[in-house]
Amino acid sequence: MIAHAPSTAVVPNLAPMVDVIMVLLVFFLLGTSIEVVRQGVLQTELDPSSGPGAGQAIRVVPRVTIGLRDVEGGRGVQISVMGRELGENDFPGLFDYLRDRAAEGADRKNPLVIGAESTVRWQYVISAMDAATLAGFQNIQFAVSLRPSGSGP
Predict the structure, then answer these.
(1) What DSSP assignment string belongs to 100-132?
(2) Of 34, 70, 80, 104, which is the most buried if we count CB atoms within 10 A?
(3) How far is Cα 124 from Cα 89, in angstroms, rounded to an integer?
(4) Is the pTM for the entire model greater than 0.85?
(5) What domains does the chain contain, in order, with CATH numbers?
(6) Comparing C-alpha atoms, which of 64, 79, 93 is closest to residue 124?
(7) DSSP sequence for 23-79
(8) pLDDT tens-place string over residues 88-99
């Protein structure tokens, strides 16, 4: 029979493993302390006409608003567009103005607001809507003023 030598416990060498853990510890400490170090900031001013995205300036066209004010107790209506008075019952002039605005670049899908006093007859509101529709505007919204424009607050 073969006699076996008494078994000795095998103990791994821990020195390389401790070295690896220390290197990882130093790496993580330095990685998290980078935020603490203040970095200088260079002030720069870029030319807006060069670089990516440079091109034509974006032009914002304001929303078109039509105002209808009662004249002569319901026998007529005063039309104003964007604060500009057109005249009494001048719906062909309203159509021409809206067509010109659309030709200048007004977005026909952008809301067009028809604001009328509560005393304005519906036929005038519908005539204003027809003029806007014929000019090609698609998103027409309505607003009403409950008090006449001549009355105080």
Answers:
(1) HHHHHT--TTS-EEEEEETTS-HHHHHHHHHHH
(2) 70
(3) 8
(4) no
(5) 65-145 (3.30.420.270)
(6) 79
(7) HHHHHHHHHHHTTTSPPP-------TTSSTT-SSPP-PPPPPEEEEEEEGGGTEEEE
(8) 888 999 999 998
